[in-house]
Amino acid sequence: MPELPEVETTLRGISPYLKHQTITRIDVRQPTLRWPVEDDVQKLVGQQVTGLTRRSKYILVEAATGTAIWHLGMSGSLRLVDPSEPPRKHDHIDWHLSNGKILRYHDPRRFGALLWVAPGEDSPHLEHLGPEPLSDEFSDQHLYDRSRGKSQAVKTYIMDGRVVVGVGNIYANESLFLAGIRPQTPAGRISKARYQRLTETIRQVLGAAIEQGGTTLRDFVGGDGKPGYFAQQLYVYGRGGEACKICQTTLKEIRQGQRATVYCPTCQR
């Protein structure tokens, strides 16, 4: 599943090709995604893209007539291709651009979305979101204050988008390992000093993943993606039963909220 670093990498990859370009045509071959593609998206046709931003795992494409919001879901991707490249299976949406490129949305599982927000309106999908993990609003004090009295496991706590956005499963595993905190520890029992360390490791892990192109794809021009490099540096995620890279203890794997959690019983307490 694309997580925050993959979405940020996507944004950075497509921005130079979209910003200040005019969208000349939109082809929707499959309108049935996680939510139906609204006809209002066609209001982008003839409009210049004035801005591209990210909020959590959403990519916002702004124009005078409104804002289109992409969500990549579990298997979605956005690429720039030439008009000569025919659509493949699961290539559901094309945006034709004035620079001769096509922004193409590919999504085998169709859990992604293309949403529309009129000028001056707010999207209900963006309401109640917590702070961005790389912003000044995200702090150890914020994590500590929100956690008081919570028996919820710290891993699911930091994955709650109302607490902080974009800390998905991969990065929660890695951040907790580097902070030395067991993922099943109740959030309310963690001290402010340990939350300070966890805040630092969340920033560290997400920042490194963004710089290295996420854990999936980093080539957004052309039909084929190149693998990212961050996956090669994972300490615990996907390594249950293997030796810890720090102490050689066998890593344990458990399930939390239907997701795999891997931790080191020696390094994490």
Structural description of this entry:
This protein has five helices and ten strands, in the order αββββββββααααββ. The longest helix has 20 residues, at 192-211. Helix 1 packs across helix 5, helix 2 (140-147) packs across helix 5 and helix 4 packs across helix 5 (192-211). The strands form three sheets. The protein has a four-stranded antiparallel β-sheet with strand order 1-6-7-5, covered by helices on one side. Strands 2-3-4-8 form a four-stranded antiparallel β-sheet, with helices on one face. A two-stranded antiparallel sheet has the order 9-10. Helix content is 22%, strand content 20%. The protein is α+β, with helices and mostly antiparallel strands and 269 residues long. Mean pLDDT is 91; it is low at 217-227. The protein has helices spanning 4-18, 140-147, 154-158, 169-179, 192-211; strands at 23-28, 51-55, 58-63, 66-71, 77-81, 91-97, 102-106, 113-117, 252-256, 259-263.
